[in-house]
């Protein structure tokens, strides 16, 4: 009898796993179970085009019409899996239905952290993770409205940029002394701060929202130091928590994310995990890492599908992330906080520019401001841990492609 691969979580990583299993030759059933009502879609547009231009939240759907049938993938949406039994190879869904599996892939993603303070449930206070969240938020961002972003991370700043394009008055309150927290040290993030200030965003650093206030809906916030600020709409963007509860309850090893090896295998036989819900081994990094990134949700499914289909290949890649704010495209390579020695090529916000982080003569990471065309050679230089000269990196006349070619 043919075997069944079940995927829990029909987001980007879940959908890609289903596609990759077929591509790698999985002959059995593929069952893709997801709690959201929609078929899998990519989330990056939600904070960008969807808010700024009113684009369809499902514009980046993973499956073309007819593709699920073509690939023989059985998708069930609006279905939450509530329990996992590893020994019995069985899932229990909401409503009590049981589903048996021969191979299981967990792709349960992450959930946004809520602010545990008075008024956090008031109408007008939003989170942004899903198409439903974006549909609720988009109509609130009207001209002249007072929007407050709690958290100056990537999501908060992308929403700030989109809301400015809609004519909102925008304030960002960030608890840390600089924007983007740990992902981007102050030497690089100050340029983002400058960009937002130039675009009319009011930024309050080292500030903490202590309460949301309002009678029937949000009217303002109170900061921990007693400052009161007007706000008609707020978006809480203070990071996400890995959705690893199902795995933890089933006894799988977890540590702020489901622990996986370089082949996406969990501690339980026959169970793999991919995407935001994992803390996965990346051979290039030489350690486990929890990433919330589009690329990880693309790559990890390929690794899991190959392992399931008997063609194991380890996950080994220089992490890459991008963000779009106003016209700026910022790309980050290498998972570094840019707190060490930095070399700049070009001036950010005045044209293409790159910040390189160098450690002991090796290129550890790069932040590319409108310089995406250099991503490929830079990735190669970082990946191969090539020794580079700071003056070559700083000199725009030196081709990064040539440096990468010379190192190949
Ligand atoms: C607004 C926004 C903008 C972003 N922009 C960027 C960007 O510019 N660049 C970038 O690199 N990354 C970006 N990201 C991150 C990227 O979208 C995520 O890393 C990616 O979506 C992770 O995919 P995933 O499948 O692991 O998780 P998700 O997409 O969260 O999917 C998980 C799915 O599992 C379902 N689920 C969870 N538990 C269960 C259960 N028990 N039973 C059934 N279903 C369940 C959830 O409902 C969800 O549908 C952005 C994310 C957001 C929210």
CATH architecture assignment of the largest domain:
3-Layer(bba) Sandwich
Tell me about the largest β-sheet: 5 strands, parallel
- What separation lies between the terminal Cα atoms? 48 Å
Instruction: Using the coordinates shown, work out and report the CATH topology of the largest domain.
Output: FAD/NAD(P)-binding domain
- How many separate structural domains? 3
Question: How many DSSP E strands?
Answer: 26
Radius of gyration: 22 Å
Bound molecules: flavin-adenine dinucleotide
The coarse silhouette is globular
Architecture overview:
The longest helix is centred in the C-terminal third of the chain and has 15 residues, at 294-308. The strands form seven sheets. Strands 3-2-1-7-19 form a five-stranded parallel β-sheet. Helix content is 24%, strand content 28%. It has 408 residues and is of the alpha/beta class. It has helices at residues 12-23, 49-53, 67-71, 131-137, 154-165, 186-198, 245-249, 294-308, 375-383, 390-394, 400-407, and strands at 4-8, 29-33, 73-76, 81-85, 90-93, 98-100, 103-106, 110-112, 125-126, 146-150, 169-173, 202-204, 209-213, 220-223, 228-230, 233-236, 240-242, 258-260, 271-273, 278-282, 287-289, 320-325, 328-333, 341-345, 353-359, 362-369. The protein has three domains: 4-110 and 241-308, 3-Layer(bba) Sandwich (FAD/NAD(P)-binding domain); 114-236, FAD/NAD(P)-binding domain (3-Layer(bba) Sandwich); 327-407, Enolase-like, domain 1 (2-Layer Sandwich), CATH 3.30.390.30. A hairpin with a 7-residue loop joins strand 24 (341-345) and strand 25. Bound molecules: flavin-adenine dinucleotide. Flavin-adenine dinucleotide binds next to helix 1, helix 8 and strand 22.
